[in-house]
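quick one if you have a minute, typing this from the bus. theres a chain ive been looking at and ive put its sequence and its fold in token form underneath. please have a look and point out which stretches look like helix strand or loop to you. anything you notice is useful, everything is just below.

***
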Amino acid sequence: FVSRTEEQGTRDPAAYLAVPAAIEFQRDRAWDEVQARCRALTLDARARLCAHLGTEPIAPDDMLVQMATVRLPAPDPGLKRRLFDEHRIEIPVLRGDDMIRVSVAAYTTPDEIDRLLAAL
């Protein structure tokens, strides 16, 4: 079994070879600071979304890094489409259309969170 499954096809070493460059990229751009800024924006976005929607957080703050799921007050099957069609906001609408997930990346700005709140 091992001899038949140990080597299947051609392995692409690109991901492994890119690790040193990825580490250097993050070090050169103070990635710890970027991640801290993203986490702060995630916590702020979740708090503002919950307040705006009248819902409670579904996880404690210490479980969040750069992504948060927020419960909607009621299922809204057309929300994902409306947000994109009318506001060009792409955001996952989850479960039974009763949750949204906000993901904060290094390039996400507070203005984009404001746009989401205004659209909701």
Q: What stands out?
A: The helical segments are 2-5, 14-28, 31-53, 79-87, 110-119.
